From TrEMBL:
This is Uncharacterized protein. Residues 24-35, 42-54 have a biased composition (Pro residues). It comes from the Bacteria. Residues 18-66 are annotated as: Disordered. It comes from Nannocystis exedens. The keyword Signal applies. The keyword Signal applies. Residues 1-22 form the signal peptide. Keywords: Signal.
């Protein structure tokens, strides 16, 4: 039996195919996937500060913030000269402005009045919508001089009407928003404590100028 089985086993071994298992192939090495690079968001620009309005000049502060009303009367704050006496004469200027308001109410009854505060003593560059009335107050020691300044509506010349004090006028008018003292020579001041009794004498001249400007 041993002799017979040996050739048979040898034949079987010769017929069996020999296979060699190759080692498993390794996948190709690749870099791990990555997100595409993106640029960092740009920072929001800092908004520029809003421009600040330039401070008003002295001349701009003296311009009325209101043009008044058509058919009405704008009573402006008095111009006080010299400038050095302004602080000491605000009370007197206010009293004169109030007195002028009463004269306007008396001689132009029913007209709306725009009563302007300190320091608004000239109309806007387009002129006032109605008649405008200003005052010039000058003082030398205890002597006072007061001039009424009356204009038609719009960009109009100013009528110079002496109210208190004695003056000579080179011209009784001055251009729109021009200084009236350029046309005035002072002959005499009136004692400031007698203003109320002295100004009544010139009220008819002021009334006539008001009525002419309102026509």
């Amino acid at each position: 039996m041993r002799t017979r089985l040996a050739p048979l086993l040898a034949a079987l071994l010769a017929c069996t195919p020999v296979t060699t298992d190759a080692p498993p192939s390794q996948p190709p090495t690749s870099a791990p996937p990555s997100l595409p690079a993106t640029a960092a968001p740009a920072p929001n620009p800092t908004p520029a500060p809003a421009p600040q309005p330039a401070p008003e000049t002295l001349e701009e502060r003296n311009v009325s913030k209101s043009a008044g009303t058509a058919g009405g009367v704008t009573v402006l704050w008095p111009r006080i000269i010299p400038r050095e006496i302004v602080d000491d004469n605000r009370g007197l200027a206010s009293a004169l402005q109030q007195q002028m308001k009463r004269i306007v109410e008396k001689h132009l009854p029913g007209r709306p009045i725009d009563f302007r505060p300190e320091p608004e003593r000239v109309c806007p560059k387009e002129g006032c919508a109605g008649v405008s009335v200003g005052l010039l107050l000058s003082r030398q020691n205890q002597g006072c001089l007061v001039i009424a300044l009356i204009s038609r509506p719009g960009v109009s010349p100013t009528k110079i009407v002496p109210w208190v004090g004695k003056v000579q006028l080179r011209s009784d008018t001055v251009g729109f928003r021009e200084w009236p003292e350029s046309q005035i020579t002072v002959d005499d001041y009136v004692p400031c404590n007698s203003l109320l009794t002295t100004m009544d004498a010139q009220e008819p001249a002021i009334a006539a100028a008001l009525q002419a400007a309102a026509q």
